Please model this.
Amino acid sequence: MFFKKELTNAGGVIRTRGLLRDRVLSPLFSKQTADNGFLRQPITHENLDLFIVFKGATTRTSSWQKACERYLHRYLEAVNWEVSFMGTLDYLSTVKAAYSSKTYRDITVCIRDFLRFVDIDWAAKIKLPKRIRKLPD
Model:
C-alpha cells in the first residue's frame, strides 16, 4: 500500500511516504463553506483509512489505535460523514454527558487529531478538557 521514494537533498537521503504526501493534492480534501461560516467537508473512508495508517505508524500501542478507529467511526456516523463545527460540538456534548471524563478526553483528542490531519481550520478551536488526576486515599 505504501511506497517509499528516496530524494537527495544536500548530500542526504529523504524518504517520503507517497500516500501521505499525495493526500494534500487529492480532490478528496475539497472544502465547502457551511451556513454558519465555518468550513464543512465531506469525509470519505479513504480519509479515515489514511489517518488510521498514520496513527498506527505514530502510536505505540495497537489498542489505542483500535479505540481511536472505533471513536472516529461513531463520530462520523453521528455527523453523517460531513464534518461541521456545530455538528462536532453537538456530538462532543452528548459524549460528555454519556461517558466518564477520561473517555471524553480520549474521544476529543482522537477527533481533534483526525480533523487536523484532514486539514480543517477550526480543529484548533476544540479545547481539550483538563486531565483529572486522582490523589491516592
